[in-house]
Structures are given as C-alpha cells and as structure tokens.
Amino acid sequence: MRTLAACLLLFTALSANAEDSRVAAARKARAPVVAALFKDAGVAWPPEQLYVRAFKHERELEVWAGPKAGPLVKVKTYPFCAASGELGPKRQQGDLQVPEGFYDIDLFNPYSNYHLSMRVSYPNAADRRHTPPGTDPGGQIFVHGNCVSIGCIAIQDEPIEELYLMVLDTRAKTKRNVPIHIFPRRLDAAGLKALETGREATDPLVTFWRSLQPAYSLFEEARYIPITSVDAKTGAYVVKPARQARTADSARR
User: Fold this and answer.
1) Considering only CA atoms, which of 176, 127, 126, 175 is closest in space to residue 151?
2) Tens-digit pLDDT profile for residues 43-97
3) Is 81 tagged catalytic?
4) CA-based nearest residue to 138, from 97, 109, 182
5) 3 state DSSP class of 60
6) What is the CA radius of gyration of the chain?
7) pLDDT the model gives residue 157
8) pTM
9) Which member of 81, 115, 152, 181 is catalytic?
10) Alpha helices in 44-188 (DSSP H)
11) Does residue 130 carry a catalytic annotation?
12) b/e per residue, 19-57, with b = 16+ CB within 10 A?
C-alpha cells in the first residue's frame, strides 16, 4: 500500500509538472513582453481588473486593464487569425457560429490541441433561453491558438501565450473570472446601422444586436465594465452602468 501511495503521489506530481510545462515555457518566453505591455499602458501587473472585448466583423480582440476602482486602458489589440460562421449569435451545436454576448473566461487548458486555450462560458442563461426547444446549444467555445476555428476565436500562438498569461495571472490575483464580451462588430451608430441595413426593424437579429449595444456604448463613454445580467422571464440582456461610472457621473453633475 505504501508503494502504491508513493506511486500515486509521484504520478500526481508528474502530471502537475506536465500540465505546467507548456505554460512555463510561455511564461519564460512571453512574461517580459506582457510586463512591458502593462508598463507602457501605465497599469500595474498583474492588474486588479482585466476585460476582453472581441469584434467579429473587425476580427479583433482587445485587452483592457486597470485598477480596481478606476477606468480601464487598452493594453493590446490582437487580430483574429481564424473564426468561423457569420455575424449573429450561436444558437445550436454544429452551427459553426462564434457566440455573441456577455461571458467569462472560466477554464484554462494547457493541454489544448490548439497550443493554449481558454474557455468562454457559453452557453449562458440568455443563450439557453433562445435555443430552439429540443436543440443542443453546443458548448466548448474557446479562445485559442493555432489559427483554426469551428466556432472558436483563434489568435496566433505567441499572442495566445501572452493573453493566457494575462488572464491566468489576473485570475490568480483577483480570484474572479475575467469577463469577455463578444460583439458582432463595433456597435457605434455606424456599426449598428450597417448591421440593420436590409433587415426589418422586427427582425430578431436586429433586436438582439440592439440589446448588446448599451454595453458597448457604456464602456466607450466611461471605460468601466458595465454590469450585465439576463432577464429571467424573457432571456433578454439587461445592461447597467458600473457603480464607479455612476459615481463619476454624479460627481460631474
């Protein structure tokens, strides 16, 4: 029994080391780059807040960071190198869609076939509510490397190493998941108009995109992460300004 226990302990230790080896290599190669990015942005590393925004039409992923009570600043923009599907939310398994909506990064996979990967918390309550009855909404949506996609957001391997370290180390410091908001495109007036062109005002996609727009606008105005929730009755997103943004707005008045 002692021999078996010793073997199990050794196996556990080796497994932990194997799990850490790819991340350790990324840390050795990219941690100085990450630290320099945050220094240039004027943000402490690791930060007290990290926020990721993705824009499908522009094929860009933005990283924002800042202090716990302050506005955020942009640290880096990474281009997509692969993303499947069209503009519009993911509604079922196998539709190849990249989701749209408000999520967290809730799991890290250093064993990924796509170099390193981080899971997006799809489906959320809104996605489940809008999935057709009897339909599997799907899942296992990741941000990863390796430049291939079947519903995920792929960035190149060196960028995913940087992003992985950013999210991993922020999660370790704050003990909170990092939010990721995925938009069809930048939802300023011109972007929303482009999405609506050729569609009826009653089109469900138009209604959905308009429900995302307040989160985009609030962040653009104040650089605080808006508070998002899902209406239990309708499955619609509810978006409110962050508490810090409301306080700052009151002070200006």
Assistant:
1) 127
2) 999 999 999 999 999 999 999 999 998 999 999 999 999 999 999 999 999 999 9
3) no
4) 97
5) strand
6) 20
7) 96
8) 0.89
9) 152
10) 125-130, 157-174
11) no
12) eeebbeebbeebeeebeebbeebebebbbbbbbbbbbbe
